[in-house]
């Protein structure tokens, strides 16, 4: 999944890879669900640091092509 996401060129996004074994809460939540995709947004007023909101995205098929992943991300990044 990471390799496919890194191939997307028509969208601007930052990919952050997290190792679920580094935190017990992540491991407990995602042990059988990896890979997991989240969209992170900063909520706050202009010029201030606000809280970070993480919205889970639907889990794509492991067989999804780079183009299919790009289309899915485009849908969620546009909102």
TrEMBL record:
- Please give the organism: Nostoc sphaeroides CCNUC1
Q: What span is annotated as the signal peptide, if there is one?
A: none
The domain of life is Bacteria
**Entry-linked Pfam families:** Glrx-like
Lineage of the native species? Bacteria, Bacillati, Cyanobacteriota, Cyanophyceae, Nostocales
Give the InterPro entries listed for this entry.
Glutaredoxin-like (IPR008554), Glutaredoxin-like_YDR286C (IPR052565)
* Name under which the protein is recorded: Glutaredoxin family protein
């Amino acid at each position: 999944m990471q390799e496919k996401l890194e191939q997307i060129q028509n969208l601007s996004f930052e990919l952050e890879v997290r190792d679920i074994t580094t935190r017990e809460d992540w491991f407990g939540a995602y042990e059988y669900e990896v890979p997991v995709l989240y969209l992170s947004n900063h909520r706050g007023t202009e010029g201030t640091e606000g809280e970070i909101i993480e919205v889970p995205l639907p889990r794509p098929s492991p067989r999804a092509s780079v183009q299919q992943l790009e289309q899915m991300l485009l849908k969620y990044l546009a909102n």
